[in-house]
Design brief:
127 residues; mainly alpha; Serine Threonine Protein Phosphatase 5, Tetratricopeptide repeat; 7 helices; 76% helix
Length: 127
């Protein structure tokens, strides 16, 4: 969570440090941690223009969510941001829309607000 907060503040080097800590200390069967560090990794890689690696990390995070039945709607916005930065607008819109549906179904108003804000920052306006 600290890595993600630092990323949001634009403190990428510090975020990278905590991302590496999380990656190196997360147990293989701690799926929530495996998802979390991959989400931040995807976003950092995308910001650095390493778009193929970024998309791969975002999709790996999403695979954990789907395969393990995790209740983590944050994997979709991370994929959406990655796809938007890779100029894959249609796919990005779909990822953000999926996130919003999941968040709204759960009544997660704050999460939906963050997702809309992130989408707008990368030029995506999901329906």
């Amino acid at each position: 969570m600290l890595a993600e907060a630092l990323y949001e503040q634009g403190r990428d080097e510090e975020a990278e440090h905590y991302l590496e800590e999380s990656r190196d200390t997360s147990a293989a069967d701690d799926f929530s941690s495996q998802v979390a560090w991959r989400r931040v990794s995807a976003r950092l890689l995308a910001r650095r223009g390493r778009l193929d690696e970024s998309e791969r990390a975002a999709r790996e995070a999403l695979d954990f969510v789907v395969e393990e039945g995790l209740m983590d709607a944050n994997a979709w916005p991370s994929l959406g941001e990655t796809l938007a930065l890779a100029s894959k607008r249609e796919d990005a819109e779909d990822a953000f829309a999926r996130a919003l549906r999941a968040q709204e179904q759960k009544g997660n108003i704050a999460g939906a607000r963050r997702t809309r804000s992130l989408a707008a920052r990368v030029g995506i306006h999901p329906q």
